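Section 4.2 – Deliverable D4.2 (structural model, holo form)

The reporting period included a commitment to supply a predicted holo structure for the target in complex with iron/sulfur cluster. Inputs used:
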Amino acid sequence: MNEITITIDGKQVRTQEGEYILNAARANGIFIPAICYLTRCSPTLACRICLVEADGKQVYACNAKAKMGMDINTKTPVIEEEKRAIMEVYDVNHPLECGVCDQSGECELQNYTLEIGVDKQHYSIADTHKPAQDWGLIHYDPALCIMCERCITVCKDMIGDAALSTVARGSEPLDAAFKESMPKDAYAMWNKLNKSLIAPNAGDTLDCTNCGECTAVCPVGALVSSDYQYSSNAWEHQQIPATCAHCSAGCQISYDIKHTDIANPEAKIYRVKNEWNYVSLCGAGRYGYDFQNSNVTKNPVAFDAAIKAFKKADTIAFTSTITNEEAMILQRLKEKLGLKLINNEARVFKNFLDSYSAVSGQSLYSGNLKEVHESDFVVSIGTALKTDNPNARFAMNNALSMNKGAGLYFHPINDPVIEDMSKNLTQFNHAPMMEEAALYLMLDLFGDKTAMPSITVDYLKSFHSLKTVTVEESVDEKVTETVIKKVLNEETGVEEEVSEEVTKTVKKKVSKEIEVDENRLLDLLNAPTGFAETLTKYLAKKEKFSLMVGPDLYTHPNSANCARLVALIEKYTAFNVTMIPNLANTLGVALICDLDEKAGEYTIGYNTAGDFTLSALGNGDLDMPALNQQEGTLTSIDKRVNPTNVALPFGGYTLNDVASALGVSAALSVDYTVQLPVSAGFKAVEFDTLPNHYTNAGEEVRGYVLDTLKVFCGKDENVQAFDEKDAMTTSVVYLANPVLQFTPFTARAHQLNEEGGLYASSEFMSSNGLNLGDNVRVKTPKGEIVVSVINDSKINGDITYLPTFDSKINSQALFGDYRFSNVTIEKV
Amino acid sequence: MHSEPLNDRNVSEHSAYYYVDIEEYPTTGWDKFKQVVKRTFRGELFVGLWVVMREMIKFDIHTVKYPLEKLPIGPRYRAVHKLLRLWESGYERCIGCGLCEKICISDCIRMDTKIDENSRKEVTEYSINLGRCIFCGYCAEVCPELAIVHGQRYENGSEQRAHFVIKDDMLTPLDFLTSGQQAEYPGFGAITPNESVTKTPLAY
Ligand code: SF4
Ligand code: SF4
Ligand code: SF4
Ligand code: SF4
Ligand code: SF4
Ligand code: FES
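Output (structure tokens):
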């Protein structure tokens, strides 16, 4: 793309060739009204208010691309007239309920009505009765809807559920006289608006992954959070810039706080908001905000007990839902007191990274989610993408739908949501343990065989064989037939039969024997038939390739080999690689802490079980602040160190207080921000200088990006062969969380409060005669538990899964390191 | 979004306050007694007493015998607030729009709202801190429903500086309404007929 100069309202601005005029203007601080356009999604041309004049022609700024030297005028009399009429139309029959509407104060309809100065109404139509609808977490009031279709667009182009569409509004046609008297675009907009309303595809209720992004993008109060409804006015909130505490995507959010009520001045989080033009949240981030450890006071007895316990302990076990600073404190405690640090999930990730570095020569993977958004060919291996990192799923979907992309998804569990993202996506539901086959397939399909180590090339060759297959082909064949026609003899006037020769071409099926290349890897991965052709189709005109790999590989018994394969893929294919860390700060913990494998005798548990527990979940021996009560930094999948701030007060002791009493002292936890290890890629930056926002041009100005360091690596690029016999083909269970859940913290939030169980597809339930709520005994080689069955309508197939978010279910004890385990499930 | 306001970590509970120079309070009983005597028999007391005496002997009183008598108050007078009800239905007029809370120059209005069983916005609590209210009338002026208005009650003596009126104090009781005792408010913010307002066209 070339940089070009265009003129908007006499101002010279520089932009990229092919950028939409609207985005060019926004990036340069020029205001063009626009309602229906969403950055990162396709223009829908529903509102038409972004009209501008480009080189004398009227165009829509949101879908007209900038060309070199273009002269753009945003205010001509005709355009002003159109805009005015458009806003008048939006106000026709719009209920005058700003006084109670949740959007009031941040409503685009209010803003533009004022901006354009609508003080008189010239249009009218009979109103129709449109009752409000309750869709669970979301509330839809069609009377307020202005049919900008932003909800549909974001759900399709960004989220990937495509759960909403338009239905008939059932109103009368517009008065024909308006067609003559009204500005053209305003009439066209109205005509379209007057025909439709929004409805869930599933009928009366919404069946989707409940991200709530549609409510975030809705410019008016038509789509709102059911829980927030009428609980506060928008302008009363103080917005606390933060980073979501639930998964490694590290989305930028703001906690909207206000006093609890008249009698209680303590701050309460009312909702979470996001900069939806640049970051999309999942439902856990949006609805799982009140996981704080509240009503805690300083308890000196518990504190002393904690200090005693630390002196006695030889191990600290912890989870990755902590800040970098806390991880740093734990590491310092380890150094000072000689403790062991146990965090299995971060440890396997760290090992994976190390094995990867040994081949790739760099400390961190090369990709990030922004690059996935920009790709046109995306592959995901070893992760239940939808739930492991929802934003990675959004990125993949966005790439598929916006860049005419194609994708491959390798995972044992068939996911209908992933399936529906695009026609150009193939799912490989391979057997667990066959992840290496998928990685080899990547090398086989995309690797540069001339550069790759010859051992690997030979190994890949061993999967290929020539096979003679009989194919049916249709060929054109000429056939000559004799037909008998009746012809009228004109002389005699009698009909006579004449035979005549006719030649016709007919299609004929012939069987032919041909030799084809057969790839055993495809069989091992349960590839759909005809995949080779599909792939050729997918790869046409593709330029940017992204691979995402996930926790199934880190926990894999051959994870080191998987990591080396990933490094080879990065080296010898066009793919950039992004690794999905499991939890909010898995990457940070992996980089900061020296983690041990075996726990000692006496363990301090931090947010996890131990002989003495520090807990932000309110169930420990000493209360700790949750992540919405702390300031600090979190390291995201994008290798970014993002700051988060205190939204709610905490009255108790922090980890820093405990550490200070043990001789690792600092005034504030955030004093450690500047001390984060530079040797691991962190920067010596003070916490208070870390920014946390997006610019109008969409640039992410948040924290800083970790330095990727050069790591010594030998020439050793050897990778191990894998054993086909390892494939787990009997009944297996997976360790994963359902949509909206990540950890016990999400489950604490009042809107997401639920109990876990054994999640099974409808198919599995009916074939095993199970009903919702039945208790089953889940038995693996490691142990057994009895849980109830829960239906997950968003998976298919025979593999069930157990969650980690419900601390009452000790699911981890049933598994080894690997996320899959053989299982027997019986009804009790 | 920027986080500058969050960077002030001066967390001491009293940091926003400092002590003014006040004479030490007496601690012993004797010191206290001395202070009382000193204050009681100051010369100023007799100056005041003398004025009262002088006026009393004149027998020429012009003042209103408050609190037995009270002067009528003009409709635009802005005293302690009232929350009115709708004449026809008896519903509370306040819709919880929060404009009064927003506009209040002394930031002394607070309210709690929620969604009620009829899916309407319900104002569960409403309070004005009269210790801070400057009776400017902005709240009455901005109210789109003529719900919050200024009443005539100006006696706000209280033993506390923070003296609140809450919803129950201000809301017209239902029996008042039915017996026609809720007066429409002609003062600040009441509707004035205005030529510039025209009717919105409706198709039916
Ligand atoms: S959507 Fe906007 S204009 Fe409509 S009632 Fe709500 S705040 Fe008012
Ligand atoms: S909540 Fe999310 S997935 Fe559901 S309809 Fe809205 S945007 Fe789509
Ligand atoms: S519900 Fe909101 S986002 Fe969707 S079309 Fe209506 S106004 Fe637009
Ligand atoms: S009169 Fe003025 S200061 Fe008092 S509550 Fe109303 S707006 Fe606030
Ligand atoms: S301005 Fe009027 S209607 Fe709105 S909250 Fe205040 S009293 Fe209620
Ligand atoms: S923003 Fe361009 S048509 Fe709506």
